[in-house]
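This week, think about what follows.
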Amino acid sequence: MDPKFLEILHEELAPWFEMTVRGSYDDLDHWTRQVAAVLLDIDTEGEDPLGGLPVLTQLRRLNSGITLISMSRDRRRSVEKQALTAGADAHFRNPVDVPELRATLLETVRYRMGEAERERMRHLAIEASRFQDFVGSSEPMRLVYDSIQQVASSSVNVLIRGESGTGKELAARAIVALSPRAKKPYIRLNCAALPENLIESELFGSEKGAFTGATESRPGHIELADGGTLFLDEIATLSVALQTKLLRVLEDHQVQRLGGRIVRKIDFRLICATNEALEDMVRGGKFREDLYYRIHVVPIQLPPLRERTGDISLLCDYFLEVHCVANGLPVKRISAETLSALEEHTWPGNVRELENLIQRLLVTVRREEIVANDLPSRVLAQSIAAHEAILVPKEGTDFDGEIRSLEVALLTTALNRTGGSKAAAARLLNIDGQRIKYLCRKYSL
C-alpha cells in the first residue's frame, strides 16, 4: 500500500482500532487468529495482478469470523464480484473513501462480533441441553434422562420403546456409559437385519461343522457380551423358536453353541429395543408372554419428536454445527420462518428424519441462511409460517404481479381442463362468459 494512504488510514482508524501493517502473506494461520479485521490490497506485482484473491479465500477458511475488506486499483465490477465470492465482506476501489471505509469496517466488525456471541450462546445452549449423546431440554426428554440415570447403576433388564428414529440405541449407549459395566463389552445386534438362520448362529454361536459353511468355531453375541451388556434392537422380529432359546439363556444364565455340547456360564445385562406393541403381539401369540415379562423389567419410553416442544431448535443448531464442521463448511443458520415450519411438521421419521433433512439442506443450499423455500414440499405443506413466508417474503413482493400470475394460472388450468372452451372454463371458475373473454384478451390466452 501507498505509505501516505497508510498514514491517513492510521489517523482515521486510531480512535477505534490498533493497526498493524504486514508486507507479506507469511504465517497467515498465526496472525489471522489474533486480529478482528484484515484490510487486504489484492493487487500484486508480477504476472498475476490480482494475486491477493486466493489469500482472501485462505483467510476466510482460516477464520470464518474475521472481518475481511479488500481493496484494488482495478475498477472493474467483475473484480469486486470475485473478491466478495472469495470471502470479502466488502470491497473498495482506489481511490478509497477513507471515512466510508472506517464506517464499513466498524459496522462489519460489530456484526461479526454479534454473530460470534450468538454462536457462543447457541453452543452453550446445546451443551446445557446435552445428556450423553442426546440433545434436548424438553420435559419429556428430562423424564427420559431421569429414567436412564435411575436404571443405569443396576443390572436389571431394560426395554427401550419408541417410534423409529427416536434414538433407542442412544438410550442404550447412555445406560451402558453410566453403568458399572461401562468398560466391559457392549455387543449390539439388530434382530431385523439378518435372516432367522443367521440370527441364531449370531446370537448363540456355533461349532465347526454345525451347519454348511461353519468352517470354524465361533462365539455368539451372547457369549461375547459376558461381563458386559447385550443390546438387541428390534427384538419383536425374533421368531417364537428363537424367543424360547433366548428365554432359556436368561433363566439359566448359560449358553450352548449350535452343534456344541459344552454349556458355558454367562453373565450379561440385556437391553432390548422395539417400536412394536409387544402387548398386542403377546395376545396374538407372536411373542412369548414369559419372555415379555423377562425383558420388560424396566421400560423406558422415548417420545416422538412432535411431542418434544422446543427441542427442534436445539437439534437444528446441533446438526448444523456437527455436519458443517464435518464437511468443512461455514456454519449456516436457519431463518425464523424456516424454524417455524420445522416446528409445525409432524416428523414421522423423528430425529433421524430431521438430521437427514439438515444434511440435505447443507448440500443443496449455498447461501449462509436456509429459508422456507429451501424446505421440501412435504414440510411446507403442513406449515402456516412457511406459506406466509412464501406468499410475502421479508424483502416484499409485487402485489399486482402476483395477482396477475394467479389469474393466468387459473385461466390456463381451466382452459386446459375444458379443452379450450371458454364457456365451460367460465362455469368451472364460476365467472360469467363476458368476464372470461375479457381476461383471455387481457392475457392473450
